[in-house]
Amino acid sequence: MQQTGSNHVGSVMARNIGRMTAFMLVVTFTAPFAAYYVASGAAVSALESQLQRSLVLTNRAIATEVERFRYLPLVVGEDARVRALASSGQDHAVLDAANSYLQTVVAQAGASELYVLDSHGVTLAASNFATPESFISHNYSFRPYFQDALRTGEGRYYAIGVTTKKPGYFLSSRIDIPGGPPIIVVVKADLQPLEVTWEAAGVQTAIADRWGIVFLSGNPDWKYRPLSPLSGEAAKRVAAERTYDGANLDEARPILPTGVVPPANGAEAPALRVDGEGQRLLAKFSSIEPDSWTVLAATSTADIAKLAGFWALAALIAGLIATGALYFLHQRALLIRMRLRQGEILELKVAERTQDLAREIDIRKRTEDELRRTQEGLIHSEKMAALGRMSTAIVHEVSQPLAALEATLATAGVLAEKEDAGKVGERILDARALVKRMQRTVKHLKTFGRKGASELEAVDVDAVIRNAIDLAMPRAKAIGVVPTIEARGQAPVVTAVGVKLEQVMLNLLLNALDAVEGRPAPSITVRRAADATAVSVTVIDNGTGIAPEHRDRVAEPFFTTKLTGEGLGLGLSIATAIVREFGGEITFSEATGGGTMATMSMPVSKRSAPPLEAAQ
């Protein structure tokens, strides 16, 4: 019965998994299309907003540039030198004065050109009178800016100059002269800096005139091309007015695709998708009055497809992950239900294994404690062995002051019987010095021989060197050598156990003493060097040296080249282990001229060292 119930639960769960998985798969493969559509719409809206801002800025820039010169013709027309042109005829003095004045105004105002026309459109005076492209005597009556100014009082027109072949924006004003014919003052403004700015910034911005012909553009391929095909009337007017003199408009291809025209209310109309030179563009339009200009701002839509594709791919991946996670969760739930039936057995096995692990941990702890005690014992035994190797020299070091002390006290007794207090005091001071000498030796031995020091502290390396040399000095005197110390730089501090570090230093010194024993002119030098990060102590002897085949094995446990009974070969092994415990290393190399260089290197500590008990 229980088996049947389990099978029924399993079949129900399997059906649920199939239904939910199928549903998630449908959602997974539908979501990318929705994500693509939403992301594409959002990207288009963002680009439209960007284009709208670009149009606003462009319109303001154009208005600002035009406003600079709008009132210049009227202001110039109020000058007496200009008004005198209406009635002077060909008076050279009047013409020269007017020309010079116009030239000065152009230089100060920053306009391109400034000139005066009579009522028939003939140029009377011009700012470029002294140049080969002078406007004087040229007739510009065919230009709309002259006709509009003569008829309404002012005119404006953008065109390519028929004389200079340079494009510009012409602003004109009629100046009425009492008792005589009117004159027309014209200023030509250069709008090319706007085009240069757009082209340098890579902005797809253009301005088209009322016929739809682009005359300023950040895209050089658009210049002097119509937005849409020109009508017959527009082509005739442009040719009659010589608006774009020298530009071949007949062969210019329209910028917008066939059938697409700029919207009348460009600011409110949606953006149009147009074909650029090898790319798809999104374009918006706005108008500028009173010239009926059309401003076009466009941008590439290549990133829209990439962005929409990215979100579609992200939606697909998210759906696949969700489907996989759902399937995994249901499989996990099914697996958990199947394993619940075996819970008691698993709990029992876990409990047994936990007990085994607890026993294993306890055994390992005891083993580690035993190994630690054994290591400390080996270190202490090696210290005692070192003291044993120096026992004869130490006994001599202590017995010599004792004999001298006995003789000094006997002399003091004799002097006391003679009641010679001054000499008795001198002998007592001598005896005290001898006692201090023995105390120093015994104190070093007690400190070095104590067991159990293991706390890390800031240790003065120079103090360690001095203490180790004091301990080794009796043996050094016995073989006739005095170790010398060469210290460079400020006294370094390391993080270590002072007594253990002294043991390492003493071991290196004793090995050096063994090496130079019986050698002619024995020499031992302790060289200490330090920088901001590390300190090195090198013990250099002129002994027999270490054979190259033994140099890599000298730190191995129980390896020794000494005669049987002279050592167990644990000294350098223990010393190496101690130094490595403190983050350092011991290396061996051949000294210059023979002998051995044993170098102990350790990192410098950032803590300051308390005063160590050094030799007094």
TrEMBL record:
Pfam families: HATPase_c. PROSITE patterns: HIS_KIN. It catalyses: ATP + protein L-histidine = ADP + protein N-phospho-L-histidine. It is a multi-pass membrane protein. SUPFAM superfamilies: ATPase domain of HSP90 chaperone/DNA topoisomerase II/histidine kinase, Sensory domain-like. This is C4-dicarboxylate transport sensor protein. It is an enzyme of class 2 (transferase). Keywords: ATP-binding, Cell inner membrane, Cell membrane, Kinase, Membrane, Nucleotide-binding, Transferase, Transmembrane, Transmembrane helix, Two-component regulatory system. It is found in: Cell inner membrane; Cell membrane. One of its GO terms (molecular function) is ATP binding. It comes from the Bacteria. The chain crosses the membrane at residues 21-39, 308-329. Residues 393-606 form the Histidine kinase domain. InterPro entries: HATPase_C_sf (IPR036890), HATPase_dom (IPR003594), His_kinase_dom (IPR005467), Sensor-like_sf (IPR029151), Sig_transdc_His_kin-like_C (IPR004358), Sig_transdc_His_kinase_DctB (IPR017055). Gene3D superfamilies: 1.10.287.130, 6.10.250.3020, Histidine kinase-like ATPase, C-terminal domain, PAS domain. Its EC number is 2.7.13.3. It comes from Ciceribacter thiooxidans. Member of the two-component regulatory system DctB/DctD involved in the transport of C4-dicarboxylates. DctB functions as a membrane-associated protein kinase that phosphorylates DctD in response to environmental signals.
